[in-house]
Structure of Peptide chain release factor 3:
Amino acid sequence: MADMKQQIQKRRTFAIISHPDAGKTTLTEKFLLYGGAINLAGSVKGKATARHAVSDWMEIEKERGISVTSSVLQFNYDNYCINILDTPGHQDFSEDTYRTLMAADSAVMVIDGSKGVEAQTRKLFKVCVMRHIPIFTFINKMDRDANDTFALLDEIEKELGIATCPINWPIGSGKEFKGVYDRNTRKITTFSDTARGTKEGASKEISIDDSSLSDEIGEAFREQLIEEIELLDGASAEFDMELVSKGKLSPVFFGSALTNFGVETFLKHFLQMTSSPLPRVSDCGIVDPFNKNFSAFVFKIQANMNKAHRDRIAFMRICSGKFEAGMEVMHVQGNKKLRLSQPQQLMAQERKIVEEAYAGDIIGVFDPGLFSIGDTFCTGAEKFAYEGIPTFAPEHFARVRQVDTMKRKQFVKGISQIAQEGAIQVFQEYQTGMEEIIVGVVGVLQFDVLRYRLENEYNVDIRMENLPYEHIRWIENENIDLDKITGTSDMKKIQDLKGQPLLLFVNSWSIGMTLERNEGLELSEFGR
Ligand code: G4P
C-alpha cells in the first residue's frame, strides 16, 4: 500500500499543446534527454523516418511520414515518473488530439515567441479551460527575434482569457538574446549558444544587483531589464498556486528549446507546481487516485495493424489504484468481468508489455471490438462509470455514399465501426434517414483514413462530396421543435445517430444570426 501511494505521488501526467512548428517536438525531446530516456536529442521523431518507430501503424502514416494517432511517452526524472501525452498536430489534427487532453492532469502550452497565439493553440486551449486543468506556458524560440514580451503576455490574456504570471523574464531576443531573469531568485542566467543543444552551454548566473552585470549583458539591456521588472511587478498578476491549479492563472517561462536554454529550469518548476494524479468525477461521486481499487477509462481507440483481424488497441488512463497484468476487471458499460490482455505501454521509443501500472499512467490493451471511447473499467465491490468524454465539434463535413449499392451492408458496418473508434462522426439528413450519410471530422486527414480503411478493411469504395459547412452546434434546449428554428439560408438541420438534432453553419456569423432570430435557443460546441 505504502508503495502504491509513493508510486502515484511521483506521477505527473500532462499534454503538450501548441500550434504546429512552435517547438513541441523539440521541447519533448529535450525533456526526454534530461530524463535519460534518449541519448541524443533529435531521435524522438525526426520529421519523417524515426516517427515510425513510435507508431508504426497504417500505410498512410508511412507514405506521408506523419503520425495519425497520438501516443504516450513515459520516463523518469528527478524522482518523478512523467507521462507525456502526445497531441498530434499538423494535418493529423483530429478528435484524438482533443480526447488526449481528457486524460491529462495539466497542459504545457508552447508558443512561438515570434508568432504569439495561433489557431491550433486556441482550439486546444478551449478544451483545457473546459476541464479546468492547470496550464503552463513556455514561450519558445527566444533565440529568434520575438515579439515584445508585454505584448505577448497581453495577447495570451486577451485571446485566451487567462491571467499570466511570468516566472522568468527574457532579456532581448534573437541575435541580442542575453538570457532570462528569474523573478524569484533575482538572478540572471546568461544565454550561450549550445550548437542546437548538442553541447553544454557556458551560461552564468549573476544577481541583478551584481556590478558585473552590465559587462555581461551590456548597460542598455541592464537598464531596460530594471525598467521592465518594475513595470512587471506593478502590472502582472501575483503568483497564486490556488489559481494556477484551477487553470485561471498560467505561469509563464521563456526559453529556447532548440538551444536547450531554459528547458530544465522550466521542467523543474513545472514538476513542482503540477500535482500528482487528481481525483476524478464518477456517477458514484469523486474517486480518489489513492483508492486501492483499480479504475480507468478509455480515451482513445486505435485500429490495429492487422487488417485480417480488425483488432484494436484501447488506450486507457488509470484513475485510481494499481494495475497488474492479468487482473480481472469489470467493464462497466459491457456489464462484464474480463481480463485485460496484452497491456502495453510506450517507453520513449518502444512499446513494451507492462506488468504493473499506477494511477496517472496510460496503458493500451487489446480490444476485441467491445470497448468504446469513455468506457470505464474498475475492480472492487462498487461499480461506477467516469464522466463521459464529450464529442468535439468537427470542422469538415462530407456527404459519403458507397459506389456499389450491393455493398450497403459492409458500408454501414465499416462506417459504424470506424465511428465507434471515434475517428469520424456520422450524421444523417434531418428526417430522411440513412440513405446518404454526412461524415464530420475534426481534421481533414480523417477523410483519407476513412476512404483507405473502407477500401482495405471492408472492401467498399466510396464517393465523397465535400460540404461547405465549418461549424456544428448541438442544441442544448430539451424538447425543442427543430421545425420552428429559423436560421440563415445556409444553415442545415441534421441529426446524429441517436436522433439528436444539430445545426450546421458555413460561418460563425450565421451562428450569431440564428441565435438572434430564435430567442432562448442554446447552442453548444461540445456534444454529450
Ligand atoms: P512542433 O513539434 O511544434 O511542430 O515543432 P518542432 O519541435 O518540430 O519545431 C519546428 C521547427 O522549429 C524545427 O525546425 C525546430 O528545429 C525549430 N525550433 C524548435 N525550437 C526552436 C527554438 O527554440 N529556436 C529556434 N530557432 N528554432 C526552434 P525545422 O527547420 O522545421 O526542423 P529541423 O530541421 O530543425 O528539425
Summary: The first strand starts at residue 11 and ends at 18. Confidence is low (pLDDT under 50) at residues 39-70. The pocket of guanosine-5',3'-tetraphosphate is lined by residues 18, 20-26, 89, 140-141, 143-144, 256-258 (CB under 6 Å). The two ends are 37 Å apart (CA to CA).
